[in-house]
Design a protein that fits this description.
Keywords: Carbohydrate metabolism, Glycosidase, Hydrolase. It holds the Pfam family Alpha-L-AF_C. This is non-reducing end alpha-L-arabinofuranosidase. The chain is of the alpha/beta class. Helices cover 26% and strands 25% of the residues. It folds into 2 domains: 4-8 and 389-499, Immunoglobulin-like, CATH 2.60.40.1180; 17-383, Glycosidases (TIM Barrel), CATH 3.20.20. It is built from 10 helices and 26 strands. The strands form 6 sheets. The protein has an 8-stranded parallel β-barrel with strand order 3-4-7-8-9-10-11-12, surrounded by 6 helices. It has a 7-stranded antiparallel beta sheet with strand order 2-15-19-20-26-22-23, with helices on one face. The chain is globular and about 65 Å long. The two termini are 27 Å apart. It binds alpha-L-arabinofuranose (AHR).
C-alpha cells in the first residue's frame, strides 16, 4: 500500500500559535497535591514543588497551562487560596466530591509556572459566582498597586503583577454536571457582561468564552451560535473540549475519531464566520481547544469516589488513566488534526498535565514517570512550531461508524523558521506497512535530520514507575532523493521525520 503526499512551500495553512501545545492543571485528584506540589519529596524545591515533575514539564516545553479548572472552578473561591497558608479554609469540592485544603492558590501556582517555564491561562468562576469576583481576581492578578485587591496581593508577598493575558469565562457552562450550569442565553449574557467589565479594565486581555463541552451535547451547535451572538465582539476565542474513548475496544473506530474532531472544528469555524458576517464585525474569533485527550481507562475505578461513597477524601487518585500504545496513535492523530486546522485553532490544552489523564505521572514519595502519550505530545510541542503546510494526500482509507474513507496514513507537516520541515505520521493500518512517497516542492531539504518511531508494541502496552518500554526509537530506511522523501511506515506506528 502506498501513500502519496505533496508538500509545497507556497501552500501554507497558517502560522502555528505556539499555545497550540498548551496543557491544563486542575485542582482534581493528585494533579496539584502529590503531583506538582509535594513538600518533603526528595526533589521538592523551597516552595514544595517537585523538581522531577518540573524537569519533565520543561522537557515538554509547555507554552501555557490553564488553571485552576475545569469543573472545579465553577464552585471555587479564588480568595481561599491567598494569604497565610495556616489561615486558608478547607472547602468541599463539589465537582469531584473531595476536600480542598487551598494550600496551593494563585501565588503558589504562579511560582510553579515560573519554575516550569510556562505561562498561566486563568479561569474565572461563572458557575456559583459571577462578574464581581471575576473582576476582583483580574485586579488582584494584574493590577500594579494602589487599589484594594492589588495591595492585598503585594501584602501577600507578590509586589509585581503577573500580567496574565488569557482568561477563560467559566468552564463547560452547557454541562448538566457543572455547578451553576446555564442555558446558552443565560451564559451568553453573563459572559458578555463579564467580558465588558474585564475589557473596561484592560482592552488587551484575551478572553475565552465557553463553547460546547463535547460535540455530542444536545445543545451543540446551537450553543455556539447563541453564545457568540451575545459575545462575538467582546471575546477572542471560543473554547471547545473533546475526550476520546474506546470502551468497546474497537480500534478502527477509535482511531477514526479525529475525523469527528475535525468536523467539530470546521462546524464551529463556520459558526464563527457566520456570526462575524451577521455582526458586520471586523474582528476575528478563534478556537481555544482547551481540553482534549483520551479519557476512558479510569472511568470505572473513579465511580465510587465521584458518587460520594468515599466521603470527602483529600487528593485521592482520580482520572488516573494509564495510557497504552493505542493511545500514542490517537494522540498523534489528534495533534495532526490541530496542526491541519492551525488557521482557526490557535490554543490547545492537553487535559491534563500531571496525574489526571496526564502524560506525566508521579508516585507519592517516589519517582515521576512518562506515560506512552508523553511522546507524541513531546514531539509536536518541540518540533511542531512554525508554519503548518497544506498537504495534498492520496492514500487508501477505510469506513468506520464515525466517518467514511478515513485515510490509513494521518499526516501533518510543519515548516520551521530555519527551513527544516517536520512531518508527523500515524499509520492506522493494523497489518500493512505503507510506503510513504512525499514530494517536496520548493523546499531545499537534503537530509533526514531526525527520525523517531513508536511501533511494534502490543496495543495494550503501557509504561509505569518500574519501567517505560513504550518509548521512541530511531527510525530506519527514510531517504531523500531528488526532492522526494520515501520511508516505510510500519503497521500501527507513530513516526516523526525531520528534514533539514
Ligand atoms: O479534565 C477533566 C474534566 O473534564 C474537567 O474538569 C471538565 O472541564 C471536563 O469535563
Amino acid at each position: 500500500m502506498r501513500a502519496r503526499v505533496v508538500a509545497n512551500v507556497d501552500f501554507a495553512i497558517s502560522e502555528i500559535d505556539p499555545r497550540l501545545y498548551g496543557s491544563f492543571i486542575e485542582h482534581l485528584g493528585r494533579a496539584v497535591y502529590s503531583g506538582i506540589y509535594e513538600p518533603g519529596h526528595p526533589t521538592a524545591d523551597e516552595n514544595g514543588f517537585r523538581g522531577d515533575v518540573i524537569d519533565l514539564v520543561r522537557d515538554l516545553d509547555v507554552p501555557i497551562v490553564r488553571y485552576p479548572g475545569g469543573n472545579f472552578v465553577s464552585a471555587y473561591n479564588w480568595e481561599d487560596g491567598i494569604g497565610p497558608k495556616e489561615d486558608r479554609p478547607v472547602r468541599l469540592d463539589l465537582a469531584w466530591h473531595t476536600s480542598e485544603s487551598n494550600e496551593v492558590g494563585i501565588h503558589e501556582f504562579a511560582d510553579w509556572a515560573e519554575a516550569a517555564g510556562t505561562e498561566m491561562m486563568l479561569a474565572v468562576n461563572l458557575g456559583s459566582r459571577g462578574l464581581d469576583e471575576a473582576r476582583a481576581f483580574v485586579e488582584y492578578v494584574n493590577h500594579p498597586g494602589g487599589t484594594y485587591w492589588s495591595d492585598l496581593r503585594r501584602k501577600n508577598g507578590r509586589e509585581t503583577p503577573w500580567n496574565v493575558k488569557m482568561w477563560c469565562l467559566g468552564n463547560e457552562m452547557d454541562g448538566p454536571w457543572q455547578i451553576g450550569q446555564k442555558t446558552a442565553d443565560e451564559y451568553g449574557r453573563v459572559a458578555f457582561e463579564t467580558a465588558k467589565a474585564l475589557r473596561a479594565y484592560d482592552k488587551t486581555l484575551e478572553l475565552i468564552v465557553c463553547g460546547s463541552s463535547t460535540p455530542t451535547m444536545p445543545t451543540y451547535p446551537e450553543w455556539e451560535a447563541t453564545v457568540l451572538d451575545y459575545t462575538y465582539d467582546s471575546v477572542d476565542f471560543i473554547s471547545l473540549h473533546m475526550y476520546f474513548e474506546n470502551h468497546e475496544g474497537d480500534l478502527p473506530k477509535f482511531l477514526s475519531l479525529p475525523a469527528r474532531l475535525d468536523e467539530y472544528i470546521q462546524t464551529v469555524a463556520g459558526i464563527i464566520r457566520m456570526t462575524k458576517a451577521k455582526k458586520r464585525s471586523k474582528r476575528d474569533v478563534y478556537i481555544s481547544f482547551d481540553e482534549w485527550n483520551v479519557w476512558y481507562h479510569s472511568r470505572d475505578q473513579d465511580r465510587a469516589t465521584l458518587q460520594g461513597e468515599d466521603g470527602w477524601p483529600f487528593a485521592p487518585p482520580l482520572l488516573e488513566d494509564i495510557y497504552d500504545f493505542a493511545d500514542v496513535l490517537q494522540v498523534g492523530a489528534i495533534l495532526n488534526t490541530f496542526i491541519r486546522r492551525a488557521d482557526v485553532v490557535k490554543v490547545g490544552c492537553l487535559a491534563q498535565l500531571v496525574n489526571v489523564i496526564a502524560p506525566i505521572m508521579t508516585v507519592k514519595d517516589g519517582p515521576a514517570w512518562r506515560q506512552t502519550t508523553f511522546w507524541p505530545y513531546y514531539f509536536a510541542s518541540r518540533y511542531g512550531r512554525g508554519t503548518a503546510l497544506n498537504l495534498a494526500v492520496d492514500c487508501p482509507g477505510y469506513d468506520s461508524p464515525v466517518a467514511q474513507d478515513v485515510p490509513y496514513v494521518d499526516v501533518s507537516a510543519v515548516l520551521a523558521e530555519d527551513g527544516s520541515l517536520t512531518v508527523f505520521l500515524v499509520n492506522r493500518h493494523e497489518t500493512e506497512a505503507i510506503d510513504l512517497d512525499l514530494a517536496l516542492q520548493g523546499l531545499s531539504l537534503s537530509q533526514v535530520a531526525m527520525d523517531k518511531v513508536i511501533a511494534g508494541h502490543a496495543l495494550d502496552a503501557t509504561n509505569g514507575p518500574e519501567g517505560e518500554p513504550v518509548v521512541p526509537v530511531d527510525g530506519t530506511g527514510a531517504d531523500i532523493t531528488d526532492g522526494r522523501l520515501t520511508a516505510q511506515l510500519a503497521p500501527l506506528s507513530y513516526r516523526m521525520i525531520r528534514l533539514g
